[in-house]
Amino acid sequence: MVDVENLISQITSKLKGVSREEVLKRLEDERRKTGGLISSEVLLQMIAAELGVEVAANKIEEPTLLLGNLVPGLNDVTVAGRVVAIFPPKHQGGRKKEKARTASLIIADKSGAISVVLWNDKTVYAEQDKVRIGQILRFRHGYTKEGRLGNVELHMGEKGEIEIEPENAEAELFPKITELATKIGALSAFKRVNIIGKVKKIFRASAFTRQDSTTGKVMRLTLFDETGEVSVIIWNDKVDEAEKLVKEGVKLYLANAKVKKALDGSFEIHVDSRAYLNVFTEEPKILRIVDLKDGLRGICVKGEVATKPLIREVKTSKGEAVKLAVFEMKDETGRVWVSAWRKSAEIAANLKVGSRIVIKNANVKRGFGDQLEISTQKTTILEVTS
C-alpha cells in the first residue's frame, strides 16, 4: 500500500495553515481532472511541488536475491554483496578501437560468493579507488551467465546500476571480511578460500621455463595466524604485485586463493590469476558524534551533511594558500562542525545538504567558540556513501 497519509503529513507539517482536509480536497480535485489515471502518491507529489514543498515518497524496494540462489539465464537481477576482491580492467577481443573493457569483482553474502563482470563504463567501479574491499554494493538490472569454469557470473552492462553502501542493506546478510576468511587451521584441499595472516618468512622469487618455452615466475612465503601457519605459492603476474606489498610482519589478505595438498601431506595456498592479494587493513570503528572528545586522533565517523559547505582559501602559518571547507554534519546522537582541508575541501565543495558521508582518519579538536570540530589531515578519506 502506498502511504498517502505520510505524504499528506509531510505537506501539512511544512506548510503552516494548510490542513489535512485542504490537501485531501485538492487531491480529490486533481484526481477528477486526471480521470483517476494517476496514482494518489504521484498526484500528492505534484501538489507538493506546486506548493514549493519537498517530500520524500515511499520507495517500493525491488526484491533482492541471495547470491547462493542465483542460476545462469536470469535477467533484470537485483543482488547485493560485500566486496571481497577487485580485479582491474582489461580489454576483450576485436580491433583495438572497438575493444570492450571488462573488470570484475567478487562479492559475498551469508549464502555464498559470486563473480561480478563489469562492462565498459561500469569498469570504473574496479579502478581509481571508487570501491574498496569490505564495502557493500547493490547491483540492479544485471543478468546471469555460466562462466567458463561452470560457475554463475553476474554481468553488469549498459542498463546496470550500482549503488555503493545502500542505506537499507541488512547488516546480518553480509558477514565482515574477517568473518568470511578461513582460519589456517581449518583449511581443506581443492577449495577457493579467503585468508588473513601475517607474513613470517619470504623466499626470493625465481623464474622458470614451461614446456612450451615460455617463462614464468614463482615466489614463496609463509603465512601464520593464531591457528597455525601455511606455505603460500604466488605465480607469475601476482609475483610483481606481491613484491611491492610483502614484508615480514605485514598482515596479508588473500581472496579466492586455491588450497592444494603438498607432497608432505600438509596444505598450501596458491595465488594465481583468479586470486586477489593485498595488505589487510582493519575496518576502523565508527564513532557516534556524541562520543567524540577533544584530542582524539585517527577517528572514523559517519553522518549526514547538515549545512551547505562554506568554501574559502586561507593561509597557513607557513604562508601556504590552501582550500578549506567548513560544514556541519549530524547523526542520530548530535551535530559537529567539520573543517575539511586541501584534498578533502575539494570533495566537500560538491556536497549537498542531506548527503550521507563517512570521514576516516581525522582528528578532533576544539575550534571556534571552544566547540568540538572534526579536522581532516593529509591521510583523511572523505567519502559520499549515497
Give a verbal description of the structure.
By secondary structure, this protein is mainly beta. 14% of the residues lie in helices and 42% in strands. The chain has helices at 4-14, 20-33, 40-50, 177-180, 237-245, 343-348, and strands at 77-92, 100-109, 112-119, 136-146, 152-156, 161-164, 192-209, 215-225, 228-235, 251-261, 267-271, 276-279, 286-287, 299-305, 310-315, 321-331, 334-341, 356-366, 372-375, 381-384. The strands form 3 sheets. The chain has a 5-stranded mixed β-barrel with strand order 1-2-3-5-4. It has a 5-stranded mixed barrel with strand order 7-8-9-11-10. A 5-stranded mixed barrel has the order 14-16-17-19-18. The longest helix has 14 residues, at 20-33.
What brief labels describe this structure?
5-stranded mixed β-barrel; single chain; mainly beta; 5-stranded mixed beta barrel; 386 residues; OB fold (Dihydrolipoamide Acetyltransferase, E2P); 20 strands
Number of helical stretches of at least 4 residues: 6
Inertia-based shape: globular
**What's the CATH first level of the largest domain?**
Mainly Beta
CATH topology of the largest domain: OB fold (Dihydrolipoamide Acetyltransferase, E2P)
Q: Work out the count of structural domains.
A: 4
What distance lies between the first and last C-alpha atoms, to the nearest angstrom?
26 Å
Major β-sheet annotation = 5 strands, mixed, barrel
Question: What's the overall average pLDDT, rounded?
Answer: 88
Which percent range describes the beta-strand content? 35-45%
Range of helix content = 10-25%
- Sheet/helix structural class: mainly beta
* CATH architecture label of the largest domain: Beta Barrel
Provide the spatial order of strands within the biggest beta sheet. 1-2-3-5-4
List segments where confidence is low: pLDDT < 50 over at least 5 consecutive residues.
Answer: none
Rg for CA atoms:
26 Å
CATH homologous superfamily grouping of the largest domain: Nucleic acid-binding proteins
Order of helices and strands: HHHEEEEEEHEEEHEEEEEEEEHEEE
Using DSSP, what is the number of strands? Answer: 20
